[in-house]
Amino acid sequence: MKVFGLQAPVYRAARVASRLAAKTSHIAAGRRAALQRAAGARRAGLTAGQAAAAVGTSRSSLHRWGQRLEPKSRRPHHVRQKTWTSELVRAVERLRQDFPMWGRAKIGPLVRAEGFTASDSTVGRMIRSLVDRGVVQPVPTLRQRPHARRWTAKRRFAQRLPKDIKPTKPGGLVQLDTLFINLTPTKAIKHFTAYCPIAKWTVAKAYNRATSQAAAAFLDKLIAEMPFRIEAIQVDGGSEFMAAFEEACKARGIRLYVLPPKCPQMNGAVERCNGAWRYEFYETYDLPSSVEGLNPILDSFQHLYNHHRPHGALAGQTPAAYLAKRQAAQTHPSHMS
């Protein structure tokens, strides 16, 4: 029987095998090229030392490369073994699956609250192991949207934020901002965020449009759900924080400060909180495409953020636990004095 050819899978396997056999590291390729140049210099009449100097290395390196092109592995002979238990792995896996955007600084205090003994570094290594095994997904990257330039009107009640003002107590200066969110390719909403940089407490609500009437309605929710009195609010130059919103702040006796143009870093606390909302809420869960169906779920995550999510700036405490501890530490004057 005469055979004119082999089946296509045989040829494909042969090509793959040849590529694997020919594959070398870039370090070995560089060393092979240096050996070839040194050999050419020796054939031209140079000594071994002169050839090594022409190549740009030492004679001992050329001799060592001639015996072994690939560099030796630097992996230690005795590698530290994993010390965590299967129960701890399951706890970290469960928390990471429930909160895919949380890292070791958030999950570490939670597993310790469940009775496990594990540092944040250990939890971080466990998360890395789970990601490498494909058990949990890595944190997705944020899709940035270029900011459009907005028209601004004249302020009536708001004042420019003074340079020397710094809040010292919860509610002293609450930061407000809006976040543009695409729920579907054809449905976009405006997410209003309020954040207290002292207590790390947040209040949020979604609206179809970012108008001053929506901002004024959000102010009512902010006053009702912040567990402390709001003395002042700072906002950027967005038109949603003018007109009806300014009148609402004036009617409630809340000072309103506006940031200078092109200074988003002065609103950094609420901007960071916006990142948590985007990463940990909108990028994580399958959400309804209407604000009526979205806001009840948003309220649930708001409660989770304020009462269960550990905060690094509060030494792993939740905002609710921080406020309770702060209130307990305050000394009240005696009624006998």
What would you note in describing this structure?
This protein has 3 domains: 25-67, no CATH class; 86-133; 159-327, Ribonuclease H-like superfamily/Ribonuclease H (Nucleotidyltransferase, domain 5, 2-Layer Sandwich). The chain is an alpha/beta fold and 337 residues long. The protein has a 6-stranded mixed beta sheet with strand order 1-6-5-2-3-4, sandwiched between helices. The protein is elongated, with a radius of gyration of 31 Å. It has helices at residues 8-22, 26-43, 48-55, 59-67, 86-98, 104-113, 120-132, 212-225, 244-251, 268-282, 291-307, 319-329; strands spanning 159-160, 174-184, 187-196, 201-207, 232-235, 255-258.
What key attributes describe this structure?
Nucleotidyltransferase, domain 5, 3 domains, six-stranded mixed β-sheet, 12 helices, elongated
Record the SSE blueprint:
Layout: H1 8-22, H2 26-43, H3 48-55, H4 59-67, H5 86-98, H6 104-113, H7 120-132, E1 159-160, E2 174-184, E3 187-196, E4 201-207, H8 212-225, E5 232-235, H9 244-251, E6 255-258, H10 268-282, H11 291-307, H12 319-329
Parallel strand pairs: 1-6, 2-5, 5-6
Antiparallel strand pairs: 2-3, 3-4
The CATH superfamily title of the largest domain: Ribonuclease H-like superfamily/Ribonuclease H
* Overall radius of gyration: 31 Å
Query: Between the first and last Cα atoms, what is the distance in angstroms?
Result: 115 Å
| Sheet with most strands | 6 strands, mixed
Fraction of residues in H or I helices: 40-55%
Numbering strands along the chain, what is their spatial order in the largest sheet? 1-6-5-2-3-4
Proportion in β-strands: 5-15%
Number of strands: 6
In DSSP terms, counting alpha (H) and pi (I) runs of 4 or more, how many helices? 12
Low-confidence stretches: 141-149
Q: Overall pLDDT, averaged?
A: 84
Give helix and strand order, one letter per element, not per position.
HHHHHHHEEEEHEHEHHH
How does the overall form come out from the CA principal axes?
elongated
Count up the domains: 3
> What is the third-level CATH name, the topology of the largest domain?
Nucleotidyltransferase, domain 5
CATH class division of the largest domain: Alpha Beta
User: Which structural category fits the helices and strands?
Assistant: alpha/beta
